[in-house]
Design goal:
The complex is a heterodimer of chains A (356) and B (309). Chain A is of the alpha/beta class and 356 residues long. Chain A is 41% helix and 19% strand. In chain A, strand 13 and strand 14 form a beta hairpin. The mean pLDDT of chain B is 89. The chains are: A alpha/beta (356), B mainly alpha (309). At the A-B interface, strand 7, helix 7 and helix 8 of A face helix 1, helix 11 and helix 12 of B.
């Protein structure tokens, strides 16, 4: 009996060590919502899968979905670190403090936090210049609207979202001086019913092009039904609105994830870095343009995307005033990174207040 | 920046649409709670009804079959709850929470290959003559059949508890299950049935979400509607008519604040977003405060397990 027990013990520990050595590295991902949202989380999961593909069996990836931005996030990351994760990607803004707390407890685990601004020796941040994509779709929106009213469904009043609104507005205004923005804040990233309600409200109030900075594809479905236009958010959403879908801003996390995991394996990964990439690095990708967009507008939009990628154009180029009329950017001046990252004001011409 | 952009009749018509999923789910939960069972799994039953109805609609092309499956879907996972809490006498709170998690998980598993598909449209039923009435016609009589059903169901539940023997029996079981048992009523069977009916209503509410209101399938698309329904039952102090008023106020203020935002009014937006919750609670508390105390109380056996005598 004793022999049996001992051999079982040996066998099982052998098996465990086999599993442990199966992959050189274990990488964890935590998502704020379900990867099935066809939006923000879906794209992070696409990025995770490209890590799987790039490294084959050498890297094992694990993920946890629907992790709230609270003490739960700390618990989940601690669990991941305890179960052998060497690197953790926390893919939502609100994981910021939980990441720092867990990173302190596990100095040998490498942390990557999306869209945050706090770093540590083993914490780097990464974010995409989505506002570059908003310049492109803002131009398309300005050209496509007939009612001169563009609806915008916004999530939370954080600099990331405000930046997107301003960038889209400036581009739309440049394309069509009569354009007006109607903005609704819904204080959630993911609530299809609420997003649909907001879009319906905007359409009832005359908007014929809808932009969104929330995660689900509900708005696309509503736009399709109402016969107005909309843009894919985070990924291509044309399946939800074949006629409504003009183009999309696609989040391309894959290249960055592969690069950082490679660096971690080579030992060249560094904490305290802050990556902020855009169209040029492929972190922001403009999706396929719909046939509904006239060729001339397609060309203009492409030119804007190319210009931004090459550095010739900048989404925020003066002269631009703030909403209250005070000067912000002088003619030809471009916005500095600090102002962009902390943006908490509308540019001149947008009506309404940013909720505080 | 003028209020002229808000079309009041359209606003009122869409508030009914926005409120219907919560109303249906809350009405089902009201029946369940009246019999003394606290089922916290409303969210899970709703989302399961949403995916069951969605899959059935896609596969058959008929939203009517879809709604039938929403009802069956909601009732079938409520069956698990009934089995666990009534036959095996497990704790209702824990089982309800588990049901929510189960429903969310199972629906996302089943729904995996159903994202990005559009369900067959569910056409509106314009009631002859009545729908022609100016303004009122648009608000009340140009909806889809489920909305008429939800309003009739509220009336039916109201009269059930007021005028019918069955309603009294349900109430008796919820107020004091030992006495009801002593009078010869089978507490377990009655509660089992009520739980199934509650699940059916929640499932229908979920189906309305995925087939009419959004209409598409996305994971976790109920996004807390089930919890709002649960809260509504309490704030309506277990009265069907107050439930209807509460649900419509909630839907109405939600849409009104979206409309006000779109107008770009200089009102604190954070306050506006909070307003549906505040106004609904405020109105229902005010209504309750004027009534005698007895009508406000929860069914006395609510949440208690019946062990027989």
């Amino acid at each position: 009996m004793k022999l049996l027990r001992v051999s079982l013990l040996v066998l099982s520990s052998l098996m465990i060590s086999c599993f442990a050595f199966a992959a050189d590295m274990k990488v964890g991902f935590i998502y704020i919502g379900p990867p099935g949202d066809h939006g923000w989380n879906y794209q992070h999961d696409v990025g995770r899968k490209s890590v799987d593909e790039a490294f084959g069996g050498k890297v094992e990836t694990v993920f946890q979905e629907n992790v709230p931005e609270s003490a739960d996030a700390e618990r989940v990351m601690t669990q991941m670190a305890l179960s052998g994760a060497d690197m953790i990607f926390a893919t939502s803004f609100g994981y910021m403090d939980p990441v720092l707390n867990v990173a302190k407890k596990f100095p040998n685990v490498k942390f990557e936090h999306a869209t945050g601004y706090k770093t540590a020796d083993n914490v780097s941040t990464y974010s995409a210049r989505f506002y570059e994509g908003r310049s492109v779709i803002g131009h398309v929106a300005g050209k496509m609207t007939k009612s001169n009213t563009i609806g915008y469904v916004a999530s939370f009043p954080i600099p990331e979202v405000v930046r997107g609104i301003n960038s889209a507005y400036l581009a739309a205004k440049a394309a069509n001086p009569n354009v007006e923005f109607k903005i609704i804040w819904i204080f959630t990233w993911y609530d299809p019913a609420k997003e649909a309600d907001a879009a319906k409200t905007l359409i009832q109030q005359g908007a014929d092009v809808i932009m969104q900075h929330v995660d689900s594809s509900a708005i696309m479905t509503v736009a399709e039904e109402a016969g107005v236009y909309a843009f894919g958010q985070a990924s291509d959403m044309s399946a939800f609105g074949p006629n409504a879908h003009l183009t999309a801003i696609i989040n391309g996390w894959g290249p960055y994830y592969v690069k950082r995991v490679q660096q971690a394996m080579d030992g060249t990964w560094k904490g305290g870095e802050q990556t902020f990439d855009g169209i040029e690095a492929g972190m922001v990708v403009i999706g396929d343009m719909s046939d509904k967009i006239p060729d001339s507008v397609k060309k203009e939009a492409q030119a804007i995307a190319d210009g931004i990628a090459s550095g010739k154009l900048h989404s925020f180029t003066g002269p631009v005033n703030k909403q209250d009329g005070s000067a912000w950017l002088a003619s030809g001046e471009t916005a500095d990174i600090g102002t962009l990252l902390g943006m908490n004001f509308y540019v001149e011409g947008i009506e309404g207040d940013i909720p505080q | 920046m003028d209020l002229g952009d808000i079309q009041i009749s359209l606003l009122l018509a869409s508030l009914i649409v926005a409120a219907t999923p919560i109303l249906l789910a809350a009405l089902g939960e009201l029946i369940v709670e009246k019999t003394g069972v606290l089922n916290l799994g409303v969210e899970g039953m709703m989302i399961f009804g949403a995916i069951a109805g969605f899959i059935a609609t896609i596969e058959t092309g008929s939203p009517w079959v879809g709604f039938l499956f929403s009802i069956l879907g909601g009732a079938s996972i409520a069956f698990i709850f009934a089995l666990v809490t009534q036959i095996f006498r497990a704790n209702q709170v824990a089982s309800g929470l588990a049901l929510t998690l189960f429903g969310l998980g199972l629906s996302s598993l089943l729904g995996h290959s159903y994202t990005g598909i559009k369900p067959a449209a569910f056409s509106d039923l314009h009631i002859p003559i009545l729908s022609e009435i100016p303004i009122l016609g648009v608000i009340l009589f140009q909806h889809d059949p489920i909305i008429y059903f939800s309003i009739l169901a509220v009336a039916a539940v109201y009269f059930l508890f007021r005028n019918f023997r069955l309603g009294l029996i349900l109430k008796a079981v919820g107020e004091n299950h030992d006495s009801a048992h002593a009078l010869g009523y089978n507490v377990i069977v009655i509660r089992f049935g009520a739980i199934l009916v509650g699940g059916a209503f929640a499932g229908l509410g979920g189906g309305y979400l995925s087939l009419v209101r959004v209409p598409q399938w996305t994971e976790g698309m109920t996004a807390g509607a089930g919890w709002i329904a649960l809260a509504l039952v309490v704030f309506a102090s277990w009265q069907p008519l107050r439930l209807l008023i509460g649900a419509y106020i909630f839907g109405g203020v939600t849409l009104l604040q979206l409309n006000l935002q779109a107008l770009g009014l200089e009102i604190n937006v954070a306050l506006l977003s909070m307003s549906p919750y505040l106004v609904t609670i405020g109105v229902l508390v005010f209504m309750s405060a004027r009534r005698s105390r007895g009508s406000l109380e929860a069914p006395r056996s609510l949440g208690k397990t019946f062990f027989g005598l």
